[in-house]
Write a structure and sequence with these properties.
Translation Initiation Factor IF3; three-stranded antiparallel beta sheet; alpha+beta; 5 helices; four-stranded mixed beta sheet; 3 domains
Length: 156
């Protein structure tokens, strides 16, 4: 029997929650449950999960008390789809979709999720960036500013 796990998101900054939830869902076994506790109705969070991973989870929302909500996500038993969201994003990206499945799975295994905030500099000026970046949500913009024609890559 699979034991349910629980994460209290109430004390975490909003921008850190999606990454934490994504990692917890990637570790969830078939038939396992993850309960998330929030201080507001988790409608946006449940929508994001069902959008990123369609038909893979049974979603149950319940109000427990004043400003306390539970979102329970149960992985459908016997689900054969790839549970790694990095692999899902890579397979949907035109630049990677034509690669061999083995190469895509190696890329997914090496992927590191990074969450950025609006206006945050993602790559510092004059720094080497030997990585491939892929935006899964939001917009990345290139900006020249300061009157010195400095180029910056920002999350918008």
């Amino acid at each position: 029997m699979v034991q349910p796990s629980e994460i209290d998101l109430r004390g975490l900054p909003v921008w850190e929650r999606p990454d934490l939830v994504r990692k917890a869902l990637d570790r969830l076994p078939s038939g396992g449950s993850l309960t998330l506790i929030t201080d507001a109705e988790p409608r946006a969070l449940s929508s994001r999960v069902t959008q990123d991973r369609p038909d893979r989870f049974v979603v149950e929302t319940r109000r427990v008390g004043s400003r306390v909500w539970q979102l329970r996500l149960t992985h459908r038993p016997g689900e054969l789809a790839d549970r790694n969201s990095a692999a899902q994003h890579i397979s949907r990206c035109p630049a990677f979709a034509s690669l061999d499945a083995g190469v895509r799975s190696e890329l997914a295994a090496a992927a590191v999720w990074q969450t950025g905030r609006r206006g945050q500099t993602l790559v510092a000026e004059n720094s080497d960036w030997p990585f491939i970046g892929m935006v899964t949500e939001g917009i990345v913009a290139r900006a020249n500013g300061g009157g010195r024609d400095r180029e910056r890559i920002l999350y918008e």
